[in-house]
Design a protein that fits this description.
seven-stranded antiparallel β-sheet; Thrombin, subunit H; six-stranded antiparallel beta barrel; 2 domains; about 230 residues; single chain
């Protein structure tokens, strides 16, 4: 178990150096109401830095996140609501599986599976979330995004508590680049890369990138075969 006071202090002052995303226009989630959420504490060796992303449990031993959330050493923190409270599981990531066609320059196929070193212990606070059932499935129009990212563009660090926001998608069909889009400032912006786009209780997308007016999510229904094969093998 980590020293949560040091973790919380670092989390609040750290300026993220990964793709900027944060929950804007949302509210604090009911504690542990999103038990699939995972906070990723990532350390890179060259250069030496610590960053954060989000992810979500899809099996006892696998987390999905964005492919650009890569690091030399990653710890998955499960069952977190408030980063200052010592009430979460911490499991090291054993191996990263970025999508084989991921491109860092333009975040194409920006999805990655993380194999945990050991199985998570499921409880009321820790549980997986289901994915869409069929390939090329349309995404429901109204969805939810959660995360510990920044809550404004003037603060330097992330939120100490899990926050969430409702988003409305511009289109329910995935684009040729396997993305769906939500418009406007409300939504993820800085620190929430890798969070799930949750619609009707299923994870339909992964927060990838965007700007003030456009938020992009990778379509999970387009990657079901790859996800299944990777976890099986």
């Amino acid at each position: 178990m980590v020293n949560t006071l040091n973790l919380g202090t670092l989390f609040l002052v750290l300026i993220r150096q990964v793709e900027p995303m944060y929950i804007y226009g949302g509210k604090e989630a009911i504690p542990h109401s999103r038990p699939y959420m995972v906070l990723l504490n990532m350390t890179s060796v060259n250069p030496n830095k610590t960053t954060y992303c989000d992810g979500f449990l899809v099996r006892e031993d696998f987390v999905i996140t964005a492919a650009h959330c890569t690091a030399s050493f990653t710890k998955a923190m499960l069952g977190v609501h408030n980063v200052f409270k010592k009430d979460f599981q911490e499991i090291r990531v054993k191996k990263e599986f970025p999508h084989p066609k991921y491109t860092n320059c333009c975040l194409q196929n920006d999805i990655m599976l993380l194999k945990l070193e050991k199985n998570a212990s499921f409880s009321n606070n820790v549980r997986s979330i289901d994915l869409p059932h069929t390939a090329n499935e349309k995404v429901p129009k109204n969805c939810l995004v959660s995360g510990w990212g920044k809550i404004s563009n003037i603060t330097a660090g992330g939120s100490p508590v899990l926050r969430e926001v409702n988003v409305t998608l511009k289109s329910q069909s995935c684009s040729k680049s396997h993305e769906v889009l939500s418009l406007g400032p409300n939504g993820p912006l800085l620190g929430d890369s890798g969070s799930p786009l949750v619609c009707n209780g299923l994870a339909y997308g992964v927060v990838s990138g965007g700007d003030w007016n456009n938020k992009f999510y990778m379509c999970l229904s387009d990657y079901l075969d790859w996800i299944t094969e990777t976890m099986m093998n």
